[in-house]
Amino acid sequence: MATTKSVASIRRWFSQAVFNTRARPGQSPQAPMPMIVGSPRSGTTLLRLMLDAHPEMAIPPETGFLTMQLPSADVENPKKWFADAVTHFPPDAPGWQDFGIAREVFEQALGQLEPFEYAEGFRLFYRMYAAKFQKPRWGDKTPLYCLSMLYVQQLLPEAHFIHIIRDGRGSAASLRKQWFSPGDSMAVQAQYWRTNVTAAREAAMQCQHYLEVRYENLISNTEAELRRICDFIQLEFDPVMLRYHEHSASRLLEHKERVTHDGVVIVGETQRRAQQIRTTQAPIPQLLTSWRDALSAAEIAEFNAVAGDFLQALGYSVSPEANQAPEGHPEPTSW
Questions:
Q1: Which of 82, 134, 150, 197 is most buried, taking the most CB atoms under 10 A from its CB?
Q2: What separation, in Å, do the N-terminal and C-terminal C-alpha atoms of the chain show?
Q3: Cα–Cα distances in Å, from 142 out to 77, 103, 131, 245, 311?
Q4: Between 280 and 194, whose confidence is greater?
Q5: What would the pLDDT profile of 92-113 be if each residue is shown by its tens digit?
Q6: 183-237, pLDDT tens digit by residue?
């Protein structure tokens, strides 16, 4: 429960930053909204923190609720339903505590939306989150929105999808150690990665705004990639983005423990923050090959058997002697 002082303070912010919906140059609710997607453990959090370091951009921890089932038009009190659904999402272990917004303040802000539409309710959340940092623009980083890009685009046409792709073997070596891993088997990991990347690339053909970013290029040529991304979302590049790691630890403090309604801790905050420890360091290109040490030859062969052809189609080599980087530099995919 927020204290009276904290609620009053937040209300003062929102009276100017949230409730004023008049469009200003570069601050319109319809400004390009970066939507970072990708198969898990492909660098989405890294890119989130890089963009979030920009003085005009705020990107919250993963949301997930954009794709929740919305009720029919005849729901008795849509604002109350929306507030309950968003602040208790996902139902089995809500993550609202990550965002640092008091539920009652969110409900009050929803009450001032007339007429109410679900899309405007979602935009209100992002505005409120950005207002905490006194920033005029916002984005999202939820990797598995890669499976629902067309729906998200219909809901929020301002969404500019940034699909980050990493060599699937690197993703698998990292993901299998995490609490949200689909399984330890490399065959399962390979199919999971292939399915996610394929879904995003197929949906991209019908997306109005789509950009592909290679994780390997973001690590080895960071400034050039960030400038390309900034051009895509109409945001002026700021060198402070290259120093994202100086503030990553404090930003990761948002990650709270996930607890079920009956009190079972699914994952603690220490573990959640530790899984992103690399983001507290500047990019280290030498670590791009670390998956070769993390995976055995048999495991690499198992992954390649399921997704080797797809790796090659993306420009990654499956030969034992090759490193993990794409062969050459594939032409950027964007529109």
A1: 82
A2: 44
A3: 28, 21, 20, 20, 23
A4: 194
A5: 878 888 899 999 999 999 999 9
A6: 889 999 999 999 999 999 999 999 999 999 999 999 999 999 999 999 999 999 9
- The structure tokens 């905050």 sit at 269
For residue 177, with 0-12 CB atoms within 10 Å meaning exposed, 13-18 middle and 19 or more buried, which class applies? exposed
Residue 128: closest CA among 28, 9, 13: 13
For the residues 120-142, what does the mean pLDDT come to? 97
Please report, as a single letter, which amino acid is at residue 226: L
Omega prior to 115 cis, within 30 of 0: yes
* pTM as predicted: 0.86
Tokens of 219: 């690590």
219 and 245 in contact (C-beta within 8 Å)? no
Residue type, 151: Y
The tokens of 126 are what? 């992002």
Q: Say whether 92 sits in a helix, a strand or coil.
A: coil
Contact between 244 and 53 under an 8 Å Cβ cutoff? The reply is yes
* Token code pair at residue 116: 């109410």
Helix (H) or strand (E) holding 141: strand 140-141
Q: Which CATH architecture has domain 30-313?
A: 3-Layer(aba) Sandwich (3.40)
| Cα 273 from Cα 154, distance rounded (Å) | 33
Question: Residue 262: what residue type?
Answer: D
Is-contact 29 157, C-beta < 8 A?
A: no
Are 330 and 217 spatial neighbours (Cβ–Cβ below 8 Å)? no
